[in-house]
Design goal:
single chain; about 180 residues; alpha+beta; Aminopeptidase; 7-stranded mixed sheet; 4 helices; about 25% helix; globular
Length: about 180
C-alpha cells in the first residue's frame, strides 16, 4: 500500500482511533459492534490505516445468492457462468456488510481500493469457495458500487424504490 497505508484485521485488543465517515450507523458499528461481531463469528472487520489515522474500514461475512432473492432474468445470467452440471439453487458469496471511509479521505478512491482488495482476496486466496460479492447498498452508494462492477440483484423490483438498502452483487468468476 502506498503512503504506509495498510489493511489490518480488527482484533479485540486493537485500539480504535477516532473515525467519522458521515454516517452515524456505520460509525456506531465500528465503535460499538465490530469487535462483538468478530467474537461471535458473525463478521470480520478490517481497518485501512496509516501511521496516524484510521482511514476506512469494512466488514465481511459469508453470504449466498439464491434463486429466491433475485429475479428470473438475473438468475439466468448467474447460472450461465457455470456448467450445467454445477447449477444450484444458490451460490456462495462473501458479503461486504459495512464499508466506511473517513470524511477527510472520501475523495481518495479508498472505497475502490477496498473493493479491489476484497475481489483480489477472494479470487487469489479463496479459502471457502465463493463466486460472488454481495452488498446491501445504501441508496446513495448504488452509483459507487455500479462503477465498481456491481449489479442490482433485482433490477426490475419496484420495491427497491422504497427500501433503505438495495441488494447488489459482483460476479468474481469474471476475474478468472
Amino acid at each position: 500500500m502506498q503512503n504506509n497505508r495498510r489493511i489490518v484485521r480488527l482484533t479485540q485488543d486493537y485500539v480504535l482511533r477516532p473515525f467519522d465517515c458521515g454516517n452515524a450507523d456505520l460509525n456506531d458499528f465500528l465503535q460499538n459492534d465490530a469487535k462483538a461481531y468478530a467474537a461471535h463469528l458473525l463478521a470480520v472487520t478490517y481497518i485501512l490505516e496509516d501511521e496516524t489515522e484510521l482511514l476506512a474500514f469494512f466488514s465481511v461475512s459469508n453470504d449466498r445468492i439464491s434463486i429466491n432473492e433475485s429475479d428470473k432474468a438475473t438468475w439466468r445470467k448467474i447460472k450461465q457462468e457455470f456448467p450445467h452440471s454445477k447449477h444450484r439453487s444458490d451460490y456462495p458469496a462473501v458479503k461486504i456488510g459495512r464499508l466506511g471511509v473517513n470524511l477527510a479521505h472520501q475523495n481518495e478512491h479508498l472505497g475502490r481500493l477496498i473493493i479491489n482488495f476484497v475481489k483480489d482476496t477472494f479470487v487469489t486466496n479463496n479459502r471457502t469457495g465463493c463466486a460472488f460479492i454481495t452488498v446491501d447498498a445504501l441508496k446513495d452508494a448504488i452509483p459507487f458500487y455500479q462503477k465498481n462492477g456491481f449489479k442490482l440483484l433485482k433490477p426490475s423490483d419496484p420495491d427497491n424504490l422504497g427500501k433503505e438498502t438495495v441488494p447488489m452483487y459482483y460476479d468474481l468468476t469474471q476475474l478468472l
